[in-house]
Every structure is written in C-alpha cells, then in structure tokens.
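Ticket #416: bound-state structure for calcium ion.
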Amino acid sequence: MPARLSSFIEVKRDSDFPLENLPFGVFRPRNDAARVGVAIGDHVVDLAVLEESGHFGPNQRIFSTDSLNAFLALGRPAWRRTRATLQQLLAADNPALRDNAALRERTFYRQSEVEMQLPARIGSYTDFYSSFHHAHNVGTMIRGPENALMPNWKWLPVAYHGRASSIVVSGTDVRRPRGQIKPPDAATPVFSPSRALDFELEAAFLVGPGNSLGEPIRVNRAEEHIFGLVLMNDWSARDVQTWEYQPLGPFLAKNFCTTISPWVVTLDALEPFRRPLAPQDPQPLEYLRRDEDFTYDIRLEAKLQTAAMPSPHTITRTNFQNLYWSISQQLAHHTVGGCNLQPGDLLASGTISGASEESRGCMLELTWRGANPLQLQGGETRKWLEDGDTLAITGWCEGEGYRIGFGEASGRVIGA
Ligand code: CA
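RESOLUTION: The complex was predicted; output attached.
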C-alpha cells in the first residue's frame, strides 16, 4: 500500500477530494469569468491562475476558459503531467505555493463560494444499456423472464444516441415533461404531464482525443481516449417511453433533461480501484476482446428527499462493477463502424443495477413498475417521483483511510 499523500490544504478523512483524487471541473467565482479548476478538500484550485504564473510551462493557455475541451484534446500524457505537477504543488512539504501568500490568495476558493458549471461542451451524448440486471429486470417486465434479454444483448453493448443540449450540471431543477401518454385502458393517447417520472443511476465518461471518421478506436487503446468519469441521472418519463419507444427507441421520454456531477474523476485517480472485468459468456467478437479488460470498484447510491422529509433517504446501493460491458468495449463498439468521437463527447453506462432488490438503479425496477411502492421515512410512499422530490446520486471508491469521491449529481423535480 503506497503512503497516503498529504497536502497543506486540509482534507477531512471522509472528504471526496483528497490529494490522490484531484478531479477536474469548470467553476465560476463570484463576479468573474468561468475557468478550469480541480477540487481538493473543501476548496477549488484555480488552474487559470497557476497556468498564468507559469506552473504548467511558459506558453500553455487552456485553463482560463469555460470548458475542459482544449485540455481533453491534449491526451493522456498531458493529463498525467498536469496531475503530477498539481500533486507536487499541493504537497504538504512543498513551500512553492504553500508559502507564497499572494499567489495562494488568488489560487484557492472555497467550494461553497463558487458556482459549478458543466465540465465540457458536450458535442454528442450516447447512452448504453450495459447492466445485465437492469436489462434483465426491464426485459422481464415487458416480455417475461424467458425472453428477458434480446438475442443481441450479450453480443454487443446496446446503446442509442442521446441529446447533448439538455445535459445540465448537478443542482439544476428538472421540469416534469409533458408528452403523449396512452393509458392501457384507453383507445387513444392523451397529452399530459408525465405521471411516471423516474431517475436512472448511471456513470458516464468524457472522451479525450477522438478518432478520425472511418478509423475505429481499438479496444486495447481505449484509455488513451477516455479522460474520466462523472455521475449521471438520466431522468426518464416511463409513460411517455412506453407509448413512443417502438420501433426506434426512446425519444421525448429521455431528452428533456440529463443531470451530471460537475467534477470529472480521472482514470489515473481511479487506477487503485481497477478490477478485472467478469468473464463474458459467450466470448465477444474479436474487436470487443482485450487482454485483462477491467472495470472499477465504485460504490454508488441514490438518495431521495421529498419536500416533507428533513433528510434524504437512501433508496439504492449499487456498484460500477455491475456493468457487464467495459468502458473499453463501449468505446470500441461505438467507433467500430467508423463513427468519429470528439473531445467532450459523453458516453454513459445505462442504469446500473445489481442482483439484489436493494441495488436496483431506477424506480421502474425498485417499485416493479409501481406495483411495490417505496416506503419512505415519515410514512410517505412513492411509485414514481413527485414534484418537490430531490434525487441525488453519490459515488466513491473506498481506499484505506481515504476515498476517491465523485461529489453528487442532484436535481429537484418541479411541476410541469
Ligand atoms: Ca439511461
């Protein structure tokens, strides 16, 4: 076990953001323009200031901007150099920044004093369907247990192209969508606010350097193209989805809002929590096969707080390892036909459900389509999300004496 890193910035034992993490994001100080920062403890480090003072080389100018895209395009060697520089600068025994009062004054903000923004200009967003238990549960509801999985599911990472423009940062209210709904006993559809609003607990990765049109990314090279992960809530209107989804898949049921956490946790920070991907049967086709394919041990939770509740109630506990398909396979599959990915594209996992009832990643599964309502503290029940409900997803890797955390992806439902 390597020694814990120690910073001159205080980091509490249960903080999501120790010196081993250093997730990247975009923040806006009061009365100033947005810029790139990293989180440490309760603080944000202003990378634009450190860049201006020459800490990342004499000519680099990529952090005084409102997105990570330019940094994402630089690729993994540059990401690693930046991370190493920051770990040195913030180390407890390094006086360079610690004892430079003027620079220190300009470099650090309290997280409570700044506004977080989306970390990147997300050009394209793709949502996979990579959790076996989620696909199996949903398939069981629709087709019965015998035909729960479609014949393609274990051969390819199923996905659809989502909507990037309605991705919002954690803390943004979510307006209940209106749409066409056809009640089972009605002959024709009605136009109405959704009566079956759901969340989906997901994780998503941001693409770094992309690929040229027509040139797939090989499964073994995936890490060169993946910057890091965020938490995601892919809000879903189940009643709209039921009526519209055949034959081309979800449309308005999914495109009204998607919430992500503001801090991007890098693959380098996740490295100590890399785990072997579970064996796949049948063995995938060659282009999806890599030696020592991997996943990460990331604990994930969703908490629900209604307007009447004094504190949130944890409604599910799951893990990133519940995904059948790896991020390498998702990336390789997405590009194998020649599709070009670009810096800032977002590829999401799909709802992450585990084997147990307590580890299901959406209301659809937790309540079995409303048949078993959730019992909440204070006596309230929920089949679906109601106006005033706040849903927060959290995630972290548990190290020995520290955690690599993601912060949260939270949103409150407001009326249509
Ligand atoms: Ca989804």
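RESOLUTION NOTES: The chain has a mean pLDDT of 97.
TICKET STATUS: resolved
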